[in-house]
Amino acid sequence: MKLSTYEPDALPPGARRLSYGLFCWLNRHTTVLRAFGALLRHWPSVGGRLGLAARASAVRDVLTRTRSFSNTAHAANMVSGDYLIGMDPGPTYSADRDLVHARLASLDVPADSDAEAQRRIKALSGRGAGAFDLIEDYLMWVVFHAMRPLFGAATGAVVAGSTTASAQGDVDEGLQRQYMLEIRYVAGQLLAGSLATLDLRRRAEACGDALQARIDRVSGPIGAAWGVKSASEDIERNAVGLAWISHPVTVQSGALIVQELLGRAKVYEELRSKAGKLGEPGVWTDPEFRKIVRNHVLELMRFRPIFPLLARDVPRDTEMETGARYNAGCPGGGKVSLLSIAAMFDPSAVPQSGRFCPDRDWGKNDALRYLMFGYGYRQCPARDHAVEILTSALIGLLTLPRLQLARGEGKAIAYDGPLMLRMRMRTT
Question: pTM, whole model, 2 decimals?
Answer without folding.
Answer: 0.93
